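User: Some background: our group keeps a shared notebook of sequences we're curious about, and every so often someone picks one and asks for a predicted structure to add to the entry. Today it's my turn. The entry only has the sequence so far, pasted here. Could you supply the structure so I can complete it?
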Amino acid sequence: MGAVFFLALRTLHNKILGKVIAEIEKLQKLSNKKYYTCTTEQVNEMFGAIQTALDEAKVSFTSDTVEKKKMFTFSA
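Assistant: Of course. Here's the predicted structure to add to the notebook entry:
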């Protein structure tokens, strides 16, 4: 594969990573207790789901298996 491909791939990675970080920053705004309230259980559930998704994404870079996408919903 040529240098142009790797440059395009790198640009795409940077663009996607920028979007991911921007969405995390949006999520962080929900911590403003003046406007939003979450129980400790909800926070733990939310970040547990995020951590699971991150772990699965990390594994996908080193594995050939593909799993179905999962949607997050609060359990209660």
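Suggested note for the entry: The mean pLDDT is 86. The longest helix spans residues 3-29.
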